[in-house]
Amino acid sequence: MKRKVCVVTGSRAEYGLLRLLIREVEKDLDLQLLVTGMHLSKEFGFTYREVEKDGFRINKKINILSRSDKAVDVAKSTGKAIENFAKAYKELKPEIVVVLGDRFEIFGAAAAAHISRIPIAHIHGGELTEGAFDDAFRHSITKMSQLHFVSTEEYRRRVIQLGEDPKRVFNVGAIGLDNIKKLKLFPKKELENNLNFRFNKHNFLVTFHPVTLENNTSKKQFQNLLNAFKELKDTNIIFTKTNADTGGRIINVMIDSYTKRNKGRAISFASLGRLRYLSTMQYVDAVVGNSSSGIIEAPSFKIGTINIGDRQKGRIKADSVIDCKPDKESILMALKILYSKKFQKKLKDVKNPYEKEGDASKKIKEVIKKSDLSGILKKEFYDLEVEKRD
């Protein structure tokens, strides 16, 4: 019998990364697909429809989100996730659960699997995002997981540093880069028609999330970015809205207000979807904000990234990433660097540290398919100090 593999997805961005892996699992194993979080929210675009449009059967829709993004409500949503995922696992009886990243709903799904004594395969462990509480969630998921698929050798070493067996930590590169190689991206005119939006001489793709380990900074920091945009000429802006993070909804309200005042110059989407998002990257000067896509995917398009503030602090970055503080003057200085001849020349030769030869999705599928899961739940702590002495 085929191995029962349960894949969990909770957001538009993470589904875009998992999509090709889900297809691989579906072809070769017994796929169980659980959808949760923002996918099931009208506010965030009912993106579970994208999953269904891709032809996947959703086994369970697990509703957890509150209408509020206050800390107490995010905590309640996390508790609800643990309870409802435990019920789903009891019914579906998966042999292994696959999760990606570091969000609170994924932490809930992993905690439920851990308590239910189901092995976990974790993708994108070992990374750092020092400005977000996702950092602690990610490392916690690592300690609950048995198989680890990381995006760079440095992250592999960090997972091992957390006490994980090197034999179960696999550097496959960033899984999302498979999409860039395999998807047929829209030509410019077709993309403009699809978005109902025209590109200008200069263009930015903007995603700005709250820095969740800071108190009440979202409004001020995002306003600083909008104030910097006032100084620009011949520039159009495509916004993608925030995730369901603490402090995120105020940013979405500000985006709506800005696009209403700047029709023809700015447009926003709750979700562009993977194909439109990557297609848009082809034709912008930079990804602006604090999204991981500016760190991991943008360098493959040889475009710049203006990385604002501390949300992505600690990640490995290509030379195409310009870090700046979340104030107007720093953002304008970063934009000046972006358009400098020296920086534009450097972009032509930029290397993406997350790229690795081969197909990450297939590699992950093969490891999940072939790994012996008997007795895998009991883990010994891999001690680096003992390794050094030996």
Task: Describe this protein with a few key phrases.
Rossmann fold, 16 helices, single chain, 6-stranded parallel β-sheet, alpha/beta, 390 residues, 2 domains
CATH-assigned fold name of the largest domain? Rossmann fold
What is the CATH architecture assignment of the largest domain? Answer: 3-Layer(aba) Sandwich
- Overall 3D geometry? globular
Secondary-structure element series? EHEHEHEHEHEHEHHEHEHEHEHEEHHHH
Number of helices: 16
What is the CATH H-level superfamily of the largest domain? Glycogen Phosphorylase B
* Count of DSSP strands: 13
Task: Work out the strand percent.
Answer: 15-25%
Describe the protein's architecture and organization:
With 390 residues, this protein is α/β, with parallel strands linked by helices. It has 2 domains: 4-173 and 356-389, Rossmann fold (3-Layer(aba) Sandwich), CATH 3.40.50; 186-347, 3-Layer(aba) Sandwich (Rossmann fold). 43% of the residues lie in helices and 16% in strands. The protein has 16 helices and 13 strands. The chain has helices at 12-28, 48-53, 71-92, 104-115, 134-144, 153-161, 177-182, 188-195, 218-229, 248-261, 273-281, 292-296, 328-338, 341-347, 360-370, 384-389, and strands at residues 4-9, 30-36, 60-62, 96-100, 120-123, 147-150, 169-171, 202-207, 235-240, 266-269, 286-289, 304-308, 321-324. The chain has a 7-stranded parallel β-sheet with strand order 3-2-1-4-5-6-7, with helices on both faces. A 6-stranded parallel β-sheet has the order 10-9-8-11-12-13. Strand 9, helix 10 and strand 10 form a beta-alpha-beta unit. Helix 1 (12-28) crosses helix 15 (360-370), helix 3 crosses helix 4 (104-115) and helix 9 packs parallel to helix 10. It is globular. The N and C termini lie far apart (42 Å).
